[in-house]
């Protein structure tokens, strides 16, 4: 159950990044906003990868 839950969190994070990137590309208000969204996306990707690595290490 715990493993399934962490897998769901991982995919939710990935989906959030995809949605954020698509919306930032569609609505390019200014470069600052675009850079900020890319930075936050990078942070979320790093978090998702670290969660995945921790999960693999526990097996």
TrEMBL record:
<keyword id="KW-1133">Transmembrane helix</keyword>
<keyword id="KW-0812">Transmembrane</keyword>
<feature type="transmembrane region" description="Helical">
    <location>
        <begin position="34"/>
        <end position="54"/>
    </location>
</feature>
<feature type="transmembrane region" description="Helical">
    <location>
        <begin position="7"/>
        <end position="28"/>
    </location>
</feature>
<keyword id="KW-0472">Membrane</keyword>
<protein>
    <submittedName>
        <fullName>Uncharacterized protein</fullName>
    </submittedName>
</protein>
């Amino acid at each position: 159950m715990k493993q399934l839950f962490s897998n769901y969190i991982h995919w939710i994070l990935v989906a959030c990044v995809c949605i954020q990137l698509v919306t930032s590309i569609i609505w390019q208000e200014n470069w600052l906003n675009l850079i900020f969204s890319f930075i936050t996306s990078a942070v979320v990707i790093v978090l998702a990868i670290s969660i995945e690595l921790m999960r693999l290490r526990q097996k």
